[in-house]
Design a protein that fits this description.
This protein is an alpha+beta fold. It is 50% helix and 12% strand. The protein is built from 13 helices and seven strands. The longest helix is centred in the first third of the chain and has 34 residues. The chain is globular, with a radius of gyration of 34 Å.
């Protein structure tokens, strides 16, 4: 049976709108309303797009960003070190140690990652043997500390005094007595066992070493490793190095880069040779090793120390520019 057609119960009539649609004022007002509404939507969409990069920028730097920046800074540093050693009269070695535990730098996750120990290490001409001058006294200290740890050496008041003068004033009598007592071969064998440069001590010749080897011994000292594992001996040497009296090389350069920087170093000077081997600690707790060995340029006495200071200033400003870490938190 066919069903009869039933019209919808509700019909939509627009006849009531016609008078309004014929009114130009109403139409104009409706048009303006639609334009304003569309503009508001557009502005809000633009704000959303603008805020997206800002939100992303507030995110912690990822490993890729940090590694990329590390490569950039290391490349800049290496290029600079190549330039100051290009004439063969200088050797430079840099090693970043990472921050002191509990320091402001250590509390920054980004700084800790960026300045991870060794991440920025580089050098130029650092494996070339050079006249060590009194920087060899760091090896004397290492050997005596090794003997002390083995129970084969006792610190008497006279030896304490001689050791202090050897580091603070760079006096030669104590170190020469040690070489005579133990012999160059025994000393060089020990240096070789620690992978320091050897032979450093050869009878009838001036002591020689490399900037890289001095970096190794300073790294052991800074990290309380190897011959410096005895805490009291390690702290004694670091304290004396902070007091050494020849401060116009790396200490002056580091202070010029950042006031309040602390430097524990051992210098060497002989004829036209001016050397400096340092552990540097910035006010925020960042630490690094810098070894600079120079000769030539008509140097005499301490005339090469300003040259080393200039290198130290540039290195520190380049590597520890505060803008580097801030860049990751913009």
């Amino acid at each position: 049976m066919k069903h009869a057609f039933r019209p919808p119960r509700h019909k939509i009539h627009i006849s009531w709108l016609l008078p309004y649609l014929r009114n130009r004022r109403i139409l104009a007002g409706l048009g303006i309303f639609l334009l304003v509404f569309a503009s508001l939507i557009t502005v809000q969409a633009h704000r959303n797009r603008t805020n997206q990069p800002a939100a992303a920028a507030n995110q912690p730097a990822n490993a890729h960003q940090i590694a990329q920046k590390q490569r950039h800074v290391k490349h800049q540093l290496h290029h600079y070190l190549k330039s100051v050693t290009a004439d063969g009269t200088a050797s430079v070695s840099f090693y970043n140690l990472g921050p002191v535990a509990g320091s402001a730098a250590a509390k920054s996750a980004t700084a800790t990652k960026f300045y991870k120990s060794g991440a920025l290490a580089t050098s130029a001409n650092a494996h070339t043997p050079e006249i060590s001058a009194s920087t060899y006294k760091l090896y004397i200290a290492a050997y005596l500390f090794h003997q002390h740890a083995a129970g084969l050496y006792t610190w008497t008041p006279a030896e304490e005094d001689g050791f202090q003068r050897m580091i603070v004033n760079s006096a030669n009598d104590f170190s020469e007595d040690v070489i005579d007592t133990y012999g160059p071969v025994a000393l060089d064998d020990y240096l070789a066992s620690r992978h320091y440069y050897s032979p450093t001590f050869v009878s009838g010749q001036v002591a020689t070493t490399t900037a890289y080897s001095l970096t190794l011994v300073l790294k052991d000292l800074a990290t309380q490793s190897g011959p410096f594992s005895h805490a009291k001996d390690q702290q004694k040497l670091l304290s004396l190095m902070k007091q050494q009296v020849y401060r116009t090389g790396i200490p002056a350069g580091a202070a010029a880069a950042k006031k309040g920087t602390v430097v524990a170093d051992k210098v060497g000077f002989l004829a036209d040779t001016n050397n400096d081997a340092a552990i540097v600690t910035l006010p925020n707790g960042e630490r690094y090793i810098l070894v600079i060995m120079t000769h030539g340029h008509e140097q005499a006495g301490f005339s090469g120390f300003p040259r080393m200071a200039k290198i130290a200033t540039h290195v520190q400003k380049l590597v520890y520019d505060p803008a580097i870490v801030k860049e990751f938190s913009k």
